[in-house]
Amino acid sequence: MHQHINLTQDLLSTAEKNIWRTIQLSHWVLGNMIIHYLIFHPHIGIHMFWNILIPIAPAIFVISIGFWRNICPMASVALFPRHMGWSKQKTLTPAQQGILNLISVFALLVIIPLRHIIFNFSGMATAILIMTLSIIAFILGFIYEWKSSWCLSLCPVFQVEKMYGLNSKVKFPNAHCDRCYSCTIPCPETSAGTTPLSTKSTIYQKISGYLIIGGMPGFIWGWYHVQDNPYLSNWIDLFEIYKLPLIGLCLTEALFLLLNKYFNEIKLIRIFSAWAVSGFYWFTIPALIGYGVFPGNGMLYDLTHFIPLWSVKIFTITTTVFFFWWIVFSKQTRKSWTTKPDYVNIDDILLN
Q1: Is 167 helix (H, G, I), strand (E, B) or coil?
Q2: What is the pTM of this model?
């Protein structure tokens, strides 16, 4: 009887795993389809990636970060060697992970402004960017244990996920890790109350955490006040795409560091997180339908002749209220993003 129950549990577990693998595969296929369009039909591909996927992503991080971590196509690429038994399973030290965290933040701050002069206009450049990051993720997954090197270290989006996924209200099963090999301690995915400043064991982790949480609201504001310019002619043009985002970053970073001396850090992190994501949608939603700061920048479809500006303002105010309620004022559940699997035992290690 006992054996029958265990067998049933294993079958259910296998069935659930197969469902997740199907979802992961479908998103990987979707990612490859976007790359195809970026290369061969760039106008469509650019809209699919920059004007549909990217605007949706922050809301997913806020509302359902655990689900996203399970289905992220880049994570599937990074973890493919481990699932296939090819990984060398090397361990990163906390210092090495901290350095990768800091590199990931700098990569994010470098890549995003380049949209104004390259990626918003060149499907091929965007495809090369995605494929390059995919190759790096695959190589790191081939060398290092589970999620330690890419998903929890070098991925440029990871720090943003920690910033927006503060109030995870639904815990998902871990669709990649069937056992915990302690590849990262503590594990941000399975630890309750994860924030960009949860881990401060190295100076690199401190810097990356403070940069992303304090600087992102101003960086977003500055980015939306830079006009697209596909005709880069000199270094001054290159300087211009970084000037306002970095000024904004420095201003809100200074504000965060000042307030952090007098107020509760966790509360401040929530406020700055809500400020960043609501600011993103404050500018993104109007831009998508032709009401952007610079009309045409980031536009998916011009609806200015059909939707009045006042209704757009009401909608953006509503999203701002929602994100502040969700992240700052609603009940803090302190749930982890995903369920922590059992620790690996010696038999599992010998089998691997």
Answers
A1: coil
A2: 0.91
- The domains of the chain are located at 2-351
Tokens of 170: 């639904």
CA distances from 308 to 107, 110, 314 (A): 38, 35, 10
180 pairs with which residues across the strands? Answer: 343
Q: Tell me: the pLDDT tens digits for 188-230?
A: 888 888 888 888 778 999 999 999 999 999 999 999 999 998 8
pLDDT greater than 90 at residue 46: yes
165, 337 Cβ separation under 8 angstroms:
yes
- Cα dihedral 175/277/244/132 (nearest 10): 10
The whole-number pLDDT of residue 7 equals 35
List Cβ neighbours of 31 (8 Å cut-off, separation of 6 or more). Answer: 73, 74, 130
Give burial (CB, 10 Å; 0-12/13-18/19+) of 296.
Answer: exposed
Please state, in angstroms and rounded to a whole number, the distance separating the CA atoms of residues 190 and 196: 14
